Amino acid sequence: MEKINFTMLTDFYELTMANGYLKNGFKDKIAYFDMFFRKVPDGGGFAIMAGVEQLIEYLENLKFDDKDIEYLRSKNIFCEEFLEYLRDFKFSCDVWAVPEGTPIFPNEPVVTVRGPVIQAQFIETMVLLTINHQSLIATKANRIVRAAQGRGVMEFGTRRAQGYEGAIYGARAAYIGGCIGTACAIADRDFEIPALGTMAHSWIQMFPSELDAFRAYAEAYPDNCTLLVDTYNVLKSGVPNAIKVFNEVIVPKGFRPKGIRIDSGDITYLSKEARKMLDEAGFPDCKIVASNSLDEYIIRDILIQGAKVDLFGVGERLITSKSEPVFGGVYKLVAIEEDGKIIPKIKISENVAKITNPGFKELWRLFDRKTGKAIADVLTIRDEVIDDSKPYEIFDPEHTWKRKTVTDFYAKRLQVKIFDKGACVYKSPKLKEIRDYCSEQIDNLWDEVKRFENPHVYYVDLSTDLWEMKQQLLKRYSVK
Amino acid sequence: MEKINFTMLTDFYELTMANGYLKNGFKDKIAYFDMFFRKVPDGGGFAIMAGVEQLIEYLENLKFDDKDIEYLRSKNIFCEEFLEYLRDFKFSCDVWAVPEGTPIFPNEPVVTVRGPVIQAQFIETMVLLTINHQSLIATKANRIVRAAQGRGVMEFGTRRAQGYEGAIYGARAAYIGGCIGTACAIADRDFEIPALGTMAHSWIQMFPSELDAFRAYAEAYPDNCTLLVDTYNVLKSGVPNAIKVFNEVIVPKGFRPKGIRIDSGDITYLSKEARKMLDEAGFPDCKIVASNSLDEYIIRDILIQGAKVDLFGVGERLITSKSEPVFGGVYKLVAIEEDGKIIPKIKISENVAKITNPGFKELWRLFDRKTGKAIADVLTIRDEVIDDSKPYEIFDPEHTWKRKTVTDFYAKRLQVKIFDKGACVYKSPKLKEIRDYCSEQIDNLWDEVKRFENPHVYYVDLSTDLWEMKQQLLKRYSVK
């Protein structure tokens, strides 16, 4: 896809702050920011990281052009020195991110940025916008895919997405989350996400009768014929006409029918009846596709009721994550450097859940060597090392008496460096590889973490050193 | 903003159908499609039309380039004649739309397209994606703006939007719906939506103390100084420090402080206490800005409780329309032409609410001449004229015994032609004009229609001729 320069897609306060930092002599002041989120959407047990590739594209293309400078000058609040700074802007931060497709949990730094505060602060809006959107949709798609228990889920939401990139990158994220394809042609062209689709009701209406419409479609696509059977009446008209056309057109040409699609009515009842009719007509291999306001809850329920659906097309409730359309990632200052020394910073809040984890940190995942399952994540101070050759004690950072000693495990750092002093040092895997990696990593989670409601809360703990640093800062900054 | 060619941002089935239409000799077959929606989001009484300007841009730039043709050829399902057709594609439809900013109601054709079925069908995805998204956000923004009862509402949601255009066109739609500005700089640069913003918590944390941070900001922006007062403790630290800096820096420079912003905690309590402190300190003109997970319900409630807030910054719940993030517009075939005659088409459904209004129609709004208020909307067959010099009887299309005779009214056609045989014949008003028009039109609605919950259902009726045509088609197509 062509690329737009989104440098100015930023909250205005990033610019007023940047100008202020420059005025205050903070041009070379080094700051550290973490992006993290506080709550998994839909009350789920984990989220899925997505959007890193687009974040990289944005950071590689950061550039203020003349039009931007002129616009900013016209606001009459920025000093000329700042506008000069923007004109010569060269991104020089270090950036680390958790790779796309990785299961992620609340309060973990999924992106960490180190660099001149003006720059590290400026990119906040796009870091959040990019990662929040795609992680939201990847997470939702994966819930729906898991509900379908191995049946294919196709992303059908383009027309109900929130804006053009909501559709395109939404399709990308849905594929990472496990969808098998999309209805969106541009997502196929640009990301090689298989595009699928057959006909709308209007196709049927364009012909004198449903039978004529089916015949015309079967003649045009004999080797790939899925017919939409609910325009008039699924069981009295749609399925009988489809069977007739399969026998009259598809079979004589030496092909097998691909499927029928039901887009309205009671999917459970209609799919069971249609399955019987297709089987009796000698088409047990003809798939039944269901669409129409589906999500993980409806799919789970109709499968419990014995619906005979082979493929689900999921639209608006996936592409907008309708039941919870916001991924609440935030971007917080966690440290500054003074004379080359890292000084941790903390954000206090009257709401205890909003207090940040200070300092330049490392994010580790501990895996059980026997089962391969993820046991816990641990945040440490950046230069700490978790020695996985010895038992390691983890503890709940709030209820510190809750302790557990982990043995026979291996510890893996989750963040990878994606920018080094402003230069990209990471190559995004192919989308298919990200999707496979995502699936593998989710296999490493316990089923208890994967429940749709009231999942087991996966441990995200702090090392003893980090916990103590946090306590000291809390004491120092709390207002009496 | 630079423009991307979104021709391929389409559901794949638009292409398979188009190829099939061509194969079936439907190249010059004329079809009519309506876009309409069935339900106002959030149970509201009306929605707001938005997105027409971007729809026009899309239609003006429809073009399949070599890359698109190559991609389609690689799918091995499209005939060469079709790929040739796409290479020479020239949009030639007539398009009518309800102007942006107009209050719209369920089952009304807000966009109508007439033209070769291949083209008129093809644009479905983008018509829906564009209008659905912006109408959703304009409608939500207007609810929030009405809840604020004259206080300014600023759109602060960029970082939580669903994709880049979700943020940018979301800001545009929010402005149409009545927001006074946005946090999004690019929306200001490109749409002249006033961008607003001051500082993040990280600004405060970058300095040795809150007081130092406030001083530095006040020195940088003495004439436009809004301070974020909730980093440590609003009433014990933030507001006292702000007052100190207003007195020490702002006033001596001959300015007045602009405001304080509260982004966490109990807005009602904190704003009342902060108001008292500011008033006692001699700053009754200093505004209080509130943000943090606001929407129309919370704003209504805190104002009932006497919160002293002058301006609201509303983020994720506006930019995603969180409580209902889907605007369910659909695009349905309503007629075809045969030998130059318009043949109405209907889509039957087992769900009665999903049955379409057939035919090429006109959408009228009847206004009371005395009050200026909108009385009802009426759909007629296209060439019918509502004579507003005489009394006009309207009736409920389902409960036809419910009748009302309207007198002393004027009737206005709501659709305007935006494309004539593929050429744009409409110039979008300036965004500010759209916003003003929207506000005026909403003033013409009865308060009963504007209730947030259980609003009066505004009449959208059919003319007698249209109603009878629909009944005939229902009889003809219903399956026994």
From TrEMBL, chains A, B:
**InterPro entries under this entry?**
Aldolase_TIM, N/Namide_PRibTrfase, NAPRTase_C, NAPRTase_N, Nic_PRibTrfase-Fam, Nic_PRibTrfase_pncB, Nicotinate_pribotase-like_C
Which SUPFAM superfamilies does the protein's record reference?
Nicotinate/Quinolinate PRTase C-terminal domain-like (SSF51690), Nicotinate/Quinolinate PRTase N-terminal domain-like (SSF54675)
Any single GO molecular-function term of the entry would be: nicotinamide phosphoribosyltransferase activity
EC number of the protein: 6.3.4.21
What catalytic reaction does the record list? 5-phospho-alpha-D-ribose 1-diphosphate + nicotinate + ATP + H2O = nicotinate beta-D-ribonucleotide + ADP + phosphate + diphosphate
Q: Which residues form a coiled coil?
A: none
Identify the pathway.
Answer: Cofactor biosynthesis; NAD(+) biosynthesis; nicotinate D-ribonucleotide from nicotinate: step 1/1
Please name the Gene3D superfamilies in this protein's record.
Aldolase class I (3.20.20.70), nicotinate phosphoribosyltransferase (3.20.140.10)
| Entry keyword set | Glycosyltransferase, Ligase, Phosphoprotein, Pyridine nucleotide biosynthesis, Transferase
Q: Which residues form the Nicotinate phosphoribosyltransferase C-terminal domain?
A: 361-470
Q: Name one GO biological process term.
A: NAD+ biosynthetic process via the salvage pathway
Tell me where in this chain the Nicotinate phosphoribosyltransferase N-terminal domain is found: 8-132
Q: Which GO terms describe its cellular component?
A: cytosol
Q: What Pfam families does the record tag this protein with?
A: NAPRTase (PF04095), NAPRTase_C (PF17956), NAPRTase_N (PF17767)
Residues forming the Nicotinate/nicotinamide phosphoribosyltransferase domain are: 153-343
Reproduce the UniProt comment on modification after translation.
Transiently phosphorylated on a His residue during the reaction cycle. Phosphorylation strongly increases the affinity for substrates and increases the rate of nicotinate D-ribonucleotide production. Dephosphorylation regenerates the low-affinity form of the enzyme, leading to product release.
Q: Which family does it belong to?
A: Belongs to the NAPRTase family.
What does this chain do?
Catalyzes the first step in the biosynthesis of NAD from nicotinic acid, the ATP-dependent synthesis of beta-nicotinate D-ribonucleotide from nicotinate and 5-phospho-D-ribose 1-phosphate.
Q: What is this protein called?
A: Nicotinate phosphoribosyltransferase
Q: Which organism is it from?
A: Acetivibrio clariflavus (strain DSM 19732 / NBRC 101661 / EBR45) (Clostridium clariflavum)
